[in-house]
Write a structure and sequence with these properties.
heterodimer; A: mainly alpha; Serine Threonine Protein Phosphatase 5, Tetratricopeptide repeat; 8 helices; 2 strands; globular; B: Penicillin binding protein transpeptidase fold; Beta-lactamase; 4 domains; 5-stranded mixed sheet
Chain lengths: 236, 753
């Protein structure tokens, strides 16, 4: 079975094997941490590339939307939910409470998706905001959108909303952008909130009702659309 | 197999007696091959660690960045506080990022650059004019006005792997002047000329040690130190000694001096904060000075480099004298080696340690707890603790600071007044009125917490805090207005177990026929139960559900008096909906998540959903403002200026087990709960307990205008509250109330009935 040559090297191969296995079985090398009460050394092999997407596909409705925007960003548009621990005394649905209310956008929301045509909104001039900072952020958002950086444009508009939470123009722009991305339901609700800020501003009331009508049309709610258009006509 | 091995052993034993050239050759070959294999193995190890992911980088959690813009109202002391927390230095003239200069009109800020989720932002030199804490103007040094200055966000924590190593990666470019020189002067003078090991260095160290009669110098090169720290565990002493030098040599062959140095700078252990191990000079700089590394001055550099020898022994926070001595020794070495002049040496030795004043313990345990919970729903633990993700939250450091203070100070006042209340606990939730973003969370009576986060983990009966929901449900029917008359009379209702439920008022009296608003302002139990029964308990619960409470609550009448358990967070969600003009916005705290390089991973869009009509919510907000102006919550004006509008409600449960307060200003929604861990009675009502925490908190937040935007369908009527009818403006004892025009009260031309 073995010839002479190999037989002579048998002890060597055994020793090598033992040495090799020993080396492999040695505790894996982790960085030394001084002064540290280490309970478990972190010996996890890290993936060598970070291009994988970590986002879990969770059953509670998080939508991972692979998006091919300019940065090929993987954008998770799920609404964050606050975890509420179940109680014994009171029945609380195990589902994170805030999840069912705001439906996570089903579509890759923030991709430069085929735009929803909004001829209804064309030519409607909204007044210049008296806050310079608002106009600047809106202009930046426009610029980002023009560059195809839609997510960044939305982030910029949300930034404007935090700075000027009662500025109707921010709601108008955010709602219009969302509708153009196919997020009709969110657009409709934002426009409804915008309406509460402008009881005496006709141009805004017209704009918001038009936008609500377009959103409802996109959602297939013909009746709702008709009533929104009816409202809009009051402010034309 | 076993058989063969025994046979081999036997043959080795048999031939042990005679030694021949063959056996010498055999053994040499074995050693040679073993050595080669070891080298190959070591080599592979080295390359694997060096070229793969070198470190597991904890996710970094950031607070919201402070946006400074013209017209913005800040709280007194806020800007100074935020800049200090960010490690800005107050100097005579701001010349570099991270510096602030006070002027007569305000201050000149040289902001730092930062990579935000929406793009990179460069550092800017901006003059900020302030007038009674309001930003009046922002100007660049060339005189042009700018609209907005965004400071970089404060790093508030990390999500650490099980070994609790934390670091902030730096590159050689990030080093301040004199850093490398100082490091090499102290640790490895011939770094750029040796081969990874330095026999000359060892010899010199030995000589020095013999001279001194003690170990004063180590002969290890930086490369060897890195090998020790990076590749070897401290347990295998013999193995480690054997391979340390060859590994250092290999490292030196494979990689350039600069590459090795960069890894060393990031690996070195320089301190310990609780369980968290501070690694690398990048994090060390933040940890000790609150500044990025590139802003450090030479005396700070000397301290950091000096720390390498013994981070705990020279810990500047615990042993400032030792640390100063060590730093000054480092400076002396620099002078000896001619790297600095004696004048410079004396100058730097005379400077203070300049440690950061910002606390280094995790300052926001309750908030971080929720951030972690939320992220764990989105990412696996390993991604969070190792990929250096950047988490942008809405945490407002100023609001959080004031919330912590309010809790601690008011709890201590309560104890002064009522004596020690065993197991007294508390929680605060603060959110932004129109976005629903969580700004601050206090999960415990003393700001930090161990075990329970009382803001989230525990639910208590909410008592009268539920009454606004009854009113909203009533107003939503379109049949009720604030002037609708309700009977505050004794009620008795059969319960499922056959007993009778007889709710009573706090003062044990009945108040007869009262307008609806008064039932809320004075928090009458009987009138509110009656109103709730008229509207239907089901409808009240449905309204509560629309406002974000998803739990299943049996429709017992006792629910109307708040016999339903909710966490402070849930309560805040309900009041958020009222504050947000009837639009439910889910409370949120993570804005964006990006990779270490800035690539956007997740973005959490702002969303609203209408939960109540504009008319109904306007009336309810008006009622709740009256509660604060003249009702059970009027104590808040001990803290607030009278012109500041707030809307609020107190809550007290049976036997005063829980003291609640929730309400909102123009900008903030806040909920406070106080109670005992064991849910036993306390001496506190909503007004004598939680109200004070809420009041102090709001007092210290930026004043914000409360805009009342009246819907077109609402009109104000001057009401005779006894009759529920409108009367001429000049009549005495009337009340102006907003009502839906559809429910316009009939008009009496006389003041009486």
């Amino acid at each position: 079975m073995y010839n002479n040559q190999t037989a002579r090297f048998k002890p060597l191969s055994l020793i090598l094997l033992v040495a090799f296995l020993g080396a492999c079985a040695a505790p894996s090398y982790g960085p030394v941490v001084e002064d540290l009460s280490v309970s478990a050394r972190h010996s996890e092999r890290l993936p060598s590339s970070s291009t994988n997407v970590y986002a879990k596909d969770s059953a509670n409705g998080s939508t991972n939307a692979a998006v091919s925007s300019e940065a090929s960003a993987i954008v998770n548009t799920a609404q964050p939910t606050l975890y509420v621990a179940p109680k014994t005394e009171v029945t609380i649905t195990a589902q994170p409470i805030l999840n069912q209310v705001i439906t996570p956008s089903p579509a890759p929301a923030l991709a430069p998706a085929p735009e929803v045509a909004m001829p209804v909104l064309q030519g409607v001039q909204l007044p210049v905001s008296d806050q310079a900072v608002v106009e600047q952020l809106l202009a930046e958002a426009d610029q980002l959108k023009a560059q195809g950086k839609v997510t960044q444009a939305v982030i910029q508009l949300q930034r404007a909303q935090r700075i000027a939470p009662r500025e109707p123009k921010v709601y108008a722009r955010l709602a219009a952008l969302l509708l153009s991305l196919g997020e009709a339901s969110r657009a409709e609700q934002l426009a409804l909130k915008g309406l509460t800020l402008v009881p005496n501003k006709k141009s805004y009331q017209y704009y918001f009702w038009k936008l609500i009508g377009a959103s409802r049309s996109h959602l297939g709610d013909g009746k709702g659309e008709a009533s929104a258009i009816f409202e809009a006509e009051k402010y034309k | 197999m076993t058989k063969r091995r025994t046979k081999n052993k036997a043959s080795v034993r048999a031939s042990a007696g005679w030694i021949s050239w063959l056996w010498i050759a055999k053994f040499s070959t074995v050693l040679l091959v073993l050595g080669t294999v070891s080298l190959i193995y070591l080599d592979a190890q080295i390359r694997h660690r060096f070229e793969g992911h070198r470190w597991s980088l904890p996710a970094k959690v950031y607070a919201r960045p402070l946006e400074i813009f013209s017209g913005q109202q800040l709280a007194a002391g806020q800007l100074d506080y935020e800049l200090t927390q960010l490690g800005y230095r107050f100097v005579k003239q701001a010349r570099a990022p991270g510096q602030v200069q006070k002027t007569n009109q305000g201050m000149v800020i040289y902001s730092r650059g930062f990579r935000f989720a929406d793009g990179d932002q460069h550092g800017r030199l901006v003059e900020v004019s302030l007038q009674s804490n309001k930003i009046t103007r922002l100007r660049q040094t060339n005189g042009t006005s700018i609209a907005l200055l965004r400071l970089e966000p404060q790093l508030v924590g990390g999500i650490y792997p099980s070994h609790n190593e934390d670091r902030e990666l730096i590159q050689l470019d990030d080093l301040p002047n004199g850093f490398i020189e100082t490091l090499l002067a102290l640790e490895d003078r011939n770094y750029y000329s040796h081969y990874g090991v330095s026999p000359w260095g060892i010899a010199r160290a030995m000589l020095a040690n013999i001279k001194a009669g003690a170990v004063v110098q180590g002969g290890s090169t930086l490369t060897q130190q890195l090998v020790k720290n990076f590749y070897l565990t401290d347990r295998q002493t013999l193995w480690r000694k054997l391979i340390e030098a060859p590994m250092a040599l290999l490292l030196n062959i494979h990689y350039s001096k600069d590459e090795v140095l960069e890894v060393y700078l990031n690996e070195v252990f320089v301190g310990q904060s609780g369980k968290r191990a501070i690694h690398g000079f990048g994090l060390a700089s933040r940890f000790y000075f609150g500044q990025p590394l590139n802003e450090l001055k030479l005396h700070q550099v000397a301290l950091l480099v000096g720390l390498v020898k013994g981070p705990s022994y020279y810990n500047p926070q615990r042993h400032p004298k030792r640390a100063t001595k060590r730093r000054n020794l480092v400076l002396s070495v620099l002078a000896q080696q001619g790297l600095i002049s004696d004048i410079q040496k004396v100058k730097y030795q005379g400077l203070p340690l300049d440690l950061t004043e910002a606390s280094q313990v995790s300052r926001y345990p309750a908030y971080m707890d929720v951030v972690r919970q939320q992220l764990q729903q989105l990412y696996p633990a390993s991604a969070l603790s190792s990929h250096g993700l950047r988490i942008f939250t809405s945490l407002d450091p100023w609001v959080q600071h004031q919330a912590d203070r309010a809790m601690v100070e008011q709890v201590s006042k309560i104890k002064q007044r009522y004596g020690d209340i065993e197991g007294l606990q508390g929680a605060i939730v603060v959110s932004h009125r129109d976005s629903g973003e969580l700004l601050a969370l206090v999960g415990d009576h003393n700001g930090g917490y161990a075990g329970h986060n009382w803001a989230l983990d525990r639910s208590r009966q909410v008592g009268s805090l539920l009454k606004p929901v009854i009113h909203l449900a009533a107003l939503e029917t379109g049949r009720y207005s604030l002037g609708t008359i309700i009977d505050d009379a004794p009620i008795s209702l059969p319960q499922p177990d056959g007993s009778l439920w007889k709710p009573q008022n706090y003062d044990l009296k009945s108040h007869g026929k009262v307008p609806m608003y008064e039932a809320l302002v004075k928090s009458y139990n009987q009138a509110n139960v009656l109103l709730g029964l008229q509207v239907g308990v089901d409808n009240v619960l449905l309204q509560l559900n629309r406002m974000g409470v998803e739990q299943v609550i049996p429709a017992y009448p006792s629910v109307l008096l708040g016999a339903v358990e909710m966490s402070p967070l849930q309560v805040n969600q309900v009041y958020q909906t009222i504050a947000g003009n009837g639009f439910y916005s889910p409370l949120s705290l993570v804005r964006q998540v990006t990779e270490a390089n800035g690539r956007l991973l997740s973005h959490f869009p702002f969303a609203v959903r209408q939960a109540a009509s504009n008319d109904a919510i306007y009336s309810l907000q008006h009622e709740m403002r009256m509660v604060a102006n003249e009702g059970t919550a009027r104590g808040v004006y001990r803290y607030l200026p009278t012109q500041q509008k707030v809307a609020a409600k107190t809550g007290t449960t049976n036997d005063q087990k829980d003291s609640w307060f929730s309400g909102f200003s123009g900008q903030h929604v806040a909920t406070v709960w106080l109670g005992r861990e064991d849910a036993k009675p306390t001496p506190l009502t909503g007004a004598s307990g939680a109200l004070n925490v809420w009041g102090q908190l709001m007092q210290n937040l930026a004043y914000s205008a409360y805009e009342d935007i009246k819907p077109q369908s609402i009109e104000y009527y001057y009401l005779n509250v006894a009759s529920g009818k409108a009367m001429p403006n000049n009549c005495p004892n009337g009340v102006w109330l907003p009502m839906s025009k559809k429910l316009a009260p009939s008009f009496n031309t006389t003041c009486g009935y």
